[in-house]
Amino acid sequence: MFLNRLPKVNALVFVVVSIFLFGTCKNDLSEIGININPDASELNQKTLDSFQWICTSSPVDSFATNNLSSFLLGTIQDPYFGVYSASIVGQARLASLGRGFTDTSQLDSIVLYLVIDNNDRFIGDSNINIDLKVFEITEDLDSVYYSNTKLSDLSQIGTYSGPIFSNDSSIRIFAKDTITTSPTLKIKLDPSFGNKLMDKSNENKFEDNTVFTEFIKGIALIPDENQLSGYGGIASIDLRNFYSEIVVYFDSIKSKSLIFSNYSKLGNLYTIKNQPAQLTQQFEDTVHFEETYMQGLGGSQIKISIPNLTDSLVKFGQNIVINQASLTLQPKEGFESSNFPLPKRLNLFSLDSAGNRTIIEDFFTNSLGGTLNENENNYTFMITREIQKILNDLNFQGVISSKRFVVSIPSDNPLEATRMVLDSRKNIGIKLTIRYTLLE
């Protein structure tokens, strides 16, 4: 009704201006600080970048590994991080119901195929042989597996020795058909396991997957760390891939498949041994170290404390607005190589007073960052909202917010067994830069 009282031209102007303002406000809500005041130099912008630092390494708590995008397999002998390994637990299910064997069927072979996931990087030396053992799990599988889970009640059903990574396609033969698939690890299993499946006394175990998974509870693939030579390696396995399966070949031309699907219980298990003293001594200390360590597979993370952060902000009271805040981390030179590349991405969390991880405020803006800048060879996190929240909590609630952060390698997306040494020297390997506007 209000528009009906305006002249037509004025009404049109009103609508156009309203649309413009709505679009502008929407953009302002998606970004904070410097984008609100693009010409911040006219608004007395200043920079604060001198802080105290306490950086140290600490162990990573265990975490669930059942919903990973793929699964790591292999073992690495690392001069800076010790020996670390990744094992796989997988529940095999029937690709098709029914026994499929006759009473006179004869086993030809039984083979485990594991499709390599090239979306995630291989870490280590791809030319080194890795020794693996394959076990049948004879206890009930857990619904959720954690990174530090230990297995028991195992019966060995296969071994493998050779490279666990390749970029070359694989050839699979199904009856008379030849199919090219993604690079695949092929492991022959013990005939006794195939004969167990084909035994007539077990014919009622193939009626449905509930019954079958009580019969064959699952398998485990565990690398043999004692046979490791050189660096070793860890690959990513696409366990849910259609061509990752156990195939029973029988009667010359016939086969029956067991698959790993979204309905399977799956998990990654990690072990880390022989960590060097320069790493483990930091687990108990609270002093600053100029060289700190982070490692995937639940190894270590880096805790960062900034004791004078609140003091640096409190002197301004409510007279500043944070335009932009960034935390930049520089890896120490000489610790990455073609065998041990830097992580593609890092995670940044805040730590509460109890030492628990909390989500950084900027996480919800999709602009937190933390990906590897290959030109600068560093990582930058945009933490503008996090710093503004610390200031707001202090000004309006009298609460001194957490001044501690933790940086870690993601447990998934990407999934890779990377590690990194941080040059945690003040303003050389680690730097916090806060740009703010001083209100008149």
Biggest beta sheet summary: 8 strands, antiparallel
Total count of strands:
27
The average pLDDT is 87
Structural class by sheet pairing and helices: mainly beta
Gyration radius (Cα, Å) is: 28 Å
Shape, principal axes of CA atoms: elongated
**N- to C-terminal distance:** 42 Å
What amount of the residues lies in strands?
A: 35-45%
Q: Regions with pLDDT < 50 over 5+ consecutive residues?
A: 1-42
Give the helix level as a range of percent.
Answer: 10-25%
Number of helices: 6
Strand and helix map with partners:
Elements: H1 8-30, E1 45-48, E2 54-59, E3 71-78, E4 82-90, E5 93-94, E6 107-115, E7 123-124, E8 130-137, E9 154-162, E10 170-174, E11 177-181, E12 184-188, H2 191-198, H3 209-215, E13 218-223, E14 232-237, E15 245-250, E16 254-259, E17 266-273, H4 277-280, E18 291-295, E19 300-305, H5 309-314, E20 320-329, E21 347-351, E22 357-359, E23 369-373, E24 378-382, H6 384-397, E25 404-408, E26 419-423, E27 430-438
Antiparallel strand pairs: 1-27, 2-19, 3-4, 3-14, 4-13, 4-17, 5-16, 6-12, 6-15, 7-14, 8-9, 8-13, 10-11, 15-16, 18-26, 19-25, 20-24, 20-27, 21-22, 21-25, 23-24
Description of the molecule:
Strand 3 (about 70-80) and strand 4 form a beta hairpin. Helix content is about 15%, strand content about 35%. It is built from 6 helices and 27 strands. The two termini are about 40 Å apart. It has helices spanning about 10-30, 190-200, 210-215, 275-280, 310-315, 385-395; strands spanning about 45-50, 55-60, 70-80, 80-90, 95, 105-115, 125, 130-135, 155-160, 170-175, 175-180, 185-190, 220-225, 230-235, 245-250, 255-260, 265-275, 290-295, 300-305, 320-330, 345-350, 355-360, 370-375, 380, 405-410, 420-425, 430-440. The model is unreliable at about 1-40 (pLDDT under 50). With about 450 residues, the protein is mainly β. The relative contact order is 0.22. Strands 3, 4, 7, 8, 9, 13, 14 and 17 form an 8-stranded antiparallel sheet that branches. Strands 1-27-20-24-23 form a 5-stranded antiparallel sheet. It has a 5-stranded antiparallel sheet with strand order 2-19-25-21-22, with no helix packed on it. The longest helix has 23 residues, at about 10-30.
